[in-house]
Design brief:
The protein has three helices and ten strands; from the N terminus they run αβββββαββββαβ. It is α+β, with helices and mostly antiparallel strands and 146 residues long. A hairpin with a 2-residue loop joins β1 and β2. The longest helix is centred in the N-terminal third of the chain and has 18 residues. It starts with 9 loop residues before the first helix and ends with a strand.
Amino acid sequence: MARRTGTASPLAAVVAVVAMVAVVGIAAGGGGRQPDRRTMTVRLTAHYSRFSPATVDVRPGTTVTFVIRNLDPIDHEFIIGGPEVHERHEVGRDAHHHGDVPGEISVPAGTTASTTWTAEMGRVVFACHLPGHFAYGMAGVVRVSA
């Protein structure tokens, strides 16, 4: 077999790198398909004891960072989760949440706070459970669908 001497073409180098990346991906368990990892930031405003927007759409498996800006002169909180989470907060858990639990955060008057939550299929409620706020309508929904 004859061997060519000299420099390789730039195209050959690119093809070699692409092939190497594909082999490494398959060897690492990727099987040619990368895992579906999504991230997004959702900015909410708390004003007049309401969240805006009140409805958010995300895809399953998305890691969502909620950034909540409280324009009210009173404190609020942002709690997201299933019915058991809201039941626990509505009957009176801690008065303030400082971000130690993903999806649960205090948002003092005039401040901005953030928390991260990972979406699963279905409809998930977010709300403020400080006394009277949820009953007043301070809640929203995340619709999680493919």
